[in-house]
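Key result, reporting period 2: structure in, sequence out.
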């Protein structure tokens, strides 16, 4: 089973066991709906267990989530460093949308068929999503994840075909 990281636990937030979570998801309000299940990877054992959301609120980069299974501040404190996850479901994505984690590791191929490098990171800038491409023996370069540059994305074969514009490399 593949998981998508929602965030990592920075500690407890209150006496009732509410967790303070550094968010890593674009849609926390959907992920943490009351009654939904998410998964916790324990920071000490790496064991994954299911949790049920009771409440959620956001404040900047942090999510504050209360789960049915965590009732005390002490229980929450034990989970510091753990990761909250959901099952990765590609079927829920709209056509032309991808999980960032699926783009990392894809080869970047220009129109002439030359491999330029590999996506090492997906970065979110105010203007657009951008792929950081690591090259052998050369500086990294960036590709805006826009249709003007991205010709084809083939997640199953880990390849992204691009149009190189002057000054990109």
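The corresponding designed sequence is given below.
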């Amino acid at each position: 089973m593949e998981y998508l990281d929602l965030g990592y636990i920075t500690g407890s937030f209150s006496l009732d066991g509410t967790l303070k979570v550094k968010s890593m998801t674009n849609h926390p309000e959907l992920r943490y709906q009351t009654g939904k299940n998410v998964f916790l990877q324990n920071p000490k054992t790496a064991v994954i267990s299911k949790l049920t959301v009771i409440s959620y609120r956001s404040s900047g980069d942090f999510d504050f989530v209360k789960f049915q299974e965590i009732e005390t501040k002490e229980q929450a404190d034990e989970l510091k460093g753990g990761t909250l996850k959901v099952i990765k479901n590609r079927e829920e994505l709209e056509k032309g949308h991808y999980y960032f984690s699926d783009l990392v590791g894809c080869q970047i191929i220009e129109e002439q068929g030359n491999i330029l490098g590999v996506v090492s990171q997906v970065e979110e800038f105010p203007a657009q999503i951008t792929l950081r491409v690591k090259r052998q023996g050369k500086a990294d370069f960036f590709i805006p994840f826009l249709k003007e540059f991205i010709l084809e994305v083939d997640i199953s074969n880990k390849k992204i075909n691009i149009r190189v514009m002057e000054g990109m490399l």
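The domain at 3-88 is CATH 2.40.30.60 (Elongation Factor Tu (Ef-tu); domain 3). DSSP finds three helices and twelve strands in the chain. This case is discussed further under Risks and Mitigation.
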